[in-house]
Amino acid sequence: MANIHINIGSNQNRKHNIRQAIEGLRMNFFDIECSDIFESVAAGFDGKNFYNVGVNATTDLIIADVISVLHTLEDQQGRDRLQPKFSSRGIDLDLVLYDEVIDKKNNLPRDDILKYNFVLAPLTQLSPQGVHPLKKKTYTQLNATMEALQSYNIEILNKD
User: Fold this and answer.
1) What CATH number should be reported for the domain holding residue 90?
2) How many domains does the chain have?
3) Predicted TM-score (pTM) of this structure
4) Which of 53, 66, 102, 144 has the most CB atoms less than 10 A away?
Protein backbone atom coordinates (compact mmCIF):
# COMPACT_ATOMS: atom_id res chain seq x y z
CA MET A 1 0.00 0.00 0.00
CA ALA A 2 1.21 3.47 -0.86
CA ASN A 3 0.67 6.57 1.26
CA ILE A 4 -0.66 9.47 -0.80
CA HIS A 5 -1.53 13.11 -0.20
CA ILE A 6 -4.15 14.90 -2.29
CA ASN A 7 -5.01 18.59 -2.26
CA ILE A 8 -8.62 19.55 -2.93
CA GLY A 9 -9.44 23.08 -4.07
CA SER A 10 -12.68 24.85 -4.95
CA ASN A 11 -13.91 28.41 -5.31
CA GLN A 12 -17.41 27.64 -6.62
CA ASN A 13 -20.05 26.12 -4.33
CA ARG A 14 -17.03 25.34 -2.18
CA LYS A 15 -18.37 23.31 0.75
CA HIS A 16 -20.66 21.18 -1.40
CA ASN A 17 -17.98 20.45 -4.00
CA ILE A 18 -15.35 19.60 -1.38
CA ARG A 19 -17.75 17.29 0.49
CA GLN A 20 -18.62 15.55 -2.78
CA ALA A 21 -14.92 15.16 -3.65
CA ILE A 22 -14.15 13.67 -0.22
CA GLU A 23 -16.97 11.16 -0.65
CA GLY A 24 -15.49 10.18 -4.02
CA LEU A 25 -12.07 9.77 -2.44
CA ARG A 26 -13.56 7.58 0.32
CA MET A 27 -14.99 5.28 -2.37
CA ASN A 28 -11.60 4.87 -4.10
CA PHE A 29 -8.93 5.04 -1.40
CA PHE A 30 -8.38 3.81 2.16
CA ASP A 31 -7.62 5.39 5.55
CA ILE A 32 -8.87 8.86 4.56
CA GLU A 33 -7.75 11.67 6.87
CA CYS A 34 -8.70 15.28 6.09
CA SER A 35 -7.15 18.55 7.20
CA ASP A 36 -9.13 21.56 8.29
CA ILE A 37 -10.47 23.80 5.53
CA PHE A 38 -8.01 26.51 4.53
CA GLU A 39 -9.30 29.64 2.79
CA SER A 40 -6.99 31.52 0.44
CA VAL A 41 -7.21 34.23 -2.17
CA ALA A 42 -7.29 33.15 -5.80
CA ALA A 43 -3.73 32.79 -7.14
CA GLY A 44 -2.94 34.12 -10.61
CA PHE A 45 -6.37 35.65 -11.36
CA ASP A 46 -9.16 37.72 -9.85
CA GLY A 47 -11.82 35.44 -8.43
CA LYS A 48 -13.59 34.25 -5.32
CA ASN A 49 -11.49 32.88 -2.49
CA PHE A 50 -10.64 29.19 -2.60
CA TYR A 51 -11.20 26.55 0.03
CA ASN A 52 -8.45 23.94 0.17
CA VAL A 53 -8.35 20.67 2.09
CA GLY A 54 -5.46 18.24 2.35
CA VAL A 55 -6.23 14.52 2.34
CA ASN A 56 -3.94 11.71 3.43
CA ALA A 57 -4.92 8.24 2.21
CA THR A 58 -3.54 4.85 1.29
CA THR A 59 -3.96 3.02 -1.99
CA ASP A 60 -2.92 -0.11 -3.82
CA LEU A 61 -3.14 1.73 -7.16
CA ILE A 62 -0.12 2.80 -9.21
CA ILE A 63 0.48 6.53 -9.77
CA ALA A 64 -1.16 6.64 -13.21
CA ASP A 65 -4.30 5.00 -11.85
CA VAL A 66 -4.49 7.39 -8.88
CA ILE A 67 -4.29 10.34 -11.27
CA SER A 68 -6.95 8.72 -13.47
CA VAL A 69 -9.28 8.33 -10.47
CA LEU A 70 -8.76 12.00 -9.54
CA HIS A 71 -9.53 13.13 -13.11
CA THR A 72 -12.65 10.94 -13.18
CA LEU A 73 -13.86 12.46 -9.90
CA GLU A 74 -13.23 15.96 -11.27
CA ASP A 75 -15.10 15.11 -14.48
CA GLN A 76 -18.04 13.74 -12.48
CA GLN A 77 -18.22 17.11 -10.73
CA GLY A 78 -18.23 19.03 -14.02
CA ARG A 79 -14.58 20.06 -14.28
CA ASP A 80 -13.97 21.96 -17.53
CA ARG A 81 -10.44 21.10 -18.68
CA LEU A 82 -10.52 23.77 -21.39
CA GLN A 83 -10.44 26.58 -18.82
CA PRO A 84 -7.11 28.36 -18.23
CA LYS A 85 -4.89 26.91 -15.49
CA PHE A 86 -5.45 29.94 -13.29
CA SER A 87 -9.23 30.28 -13.27
CA SER A 88 -12.27 29.67 -11.10
CA ARG A 89 -13.22 26.05 -10.71
CA GLY A 90 -15.76 23.90 -8.99
CA ILE A 91 -13.21 21.28 -8.05
CA ASP A 92 -9.50 20.62 -8.39
CA LEU A 93 -7.93 17.37 -7.16
CA ASP A 94 -4.13 17.20 -7.25
CA LEU A 95 -1.92 14.28 -6.32
CA VAL A 96 0.74 15.96 -4.19
CA LEU A 97 2.68 12.98 -2.82
CA TYR A 98 2.89 9.26 -3.57
CA ASP A 99 5.08 7.74 -0.86
CA GLU A 100 8.53 9.28 -1.28
CA VAL A 101 8.45 8.85 -5.05
CA ILE A 102 10.29 11.40 -7.17
CA ASP A 103 8.71 11.41 -10.63
CA LYS A 104 9.20 14.47 -12.85
CA LYS A 105 6.72 13.24 -15.47
CA ASN A 106 3.90 13.23 -12.90
CA ASN A 107 5.20 16.23 -10.92
CA LEU A 108 5.87 14.22 -7.75
CA PRO A 109 6.42 15.52 -5.23
CA ARG A 110 4.16 18.26 -6.58
CA ASP A 111 6.13 21.49 -6.92
CA ASP A 112 3.14 23.40 -5.52
CA ILE A 113 4.23 22.24 -2.05
CA LEU A 114 7.09 24.73 -2.20
CA LYS A 115 5.13 27.46 -4.04
CA TYR A 116 1.77 27.79 -2.32
CA ASN A 117 0.88 27.86 1.34
CA PHE A 118 -2.62 26.54 0.54
CA VAL A 119 -0.91 23.26 -0.43
CA LEU A 120 1.82 23.19 2.22
CA ALA A 121 -0.28 24.24 5.24
CA PRO A 122 -2.85 21.38 5.02
CA LEU A 123 -0.02 18.92 4.33
CA THR A 124 1.85 20.21 7.38
CA GLN A 125 -1.26 19.88 9.53
CA LEU A 126 -1.68 16.22 8.55
CA SER A 127 2.00 15.21 8.35
CA PRO A 128 4.04 17.70 10.42
CA GLN A 129 7.05 15.40 10.67
CA GLY A 130 6.81 14.12 7.10
CA VAL A 131 9.94 14.80 5.05
CA HIS A 132 9.91 16.35 1.58
CA PRO A 133 11.53 13.79 -0.76
CA LEU A 134 13.74 16.39 -2.49
CA LYS A 135 14.36 19.06 0.15
CA LYS A 136 14.94 16.55 2.99
CA LYS A 137 13.23 18.93 5.43
CA THR A 138 10.07 18.32 7.42
CA TYR A 139 6.87 19.97 6.28
CA THR A 140 6.88 21.88 9.58
CA GLN A 141 10.32 23.31 8.71
CA LEU A 142 9.24 24.17 5.16
CA ASN A 143 6.04 25.77 6.44
CA ALA A 144 7.97 27.93 8.91
CA THR A 145 10.24 29.12 6.10
CA MET A 146 7.27 29.90 3.85
CA GLU A 147 5.54 31.81 6.65
CA ALA A 148 8.68 33.92 7.08
CA LEU A 149 9.13 34.62 3.36
CA GLN A 150 5.55 35.21 2.20
CA SER A 151 2.49 36.97 3.38
CA TYR A 152 0.64 34.02 4.82
CA ASN A 153 -2.73 34.65 3.18
CA ILE A 154 -4.73 31.68 4.41
CA GLU A 155 -7.28 31.29 7.14
CA ILE A 156 -8.15 28.02 8.86
CA LEU A 157 -11.90 27.41 9.01
CA ASN A 158 -13.78 24.86 11.08
CA LYS A 159 -14.74 21.59 9.43
CA ASP A 160 -18.53 21.52 9.33
Assistant:
1) 3.30.70.560
2) 1
3) 0.90
4) 53
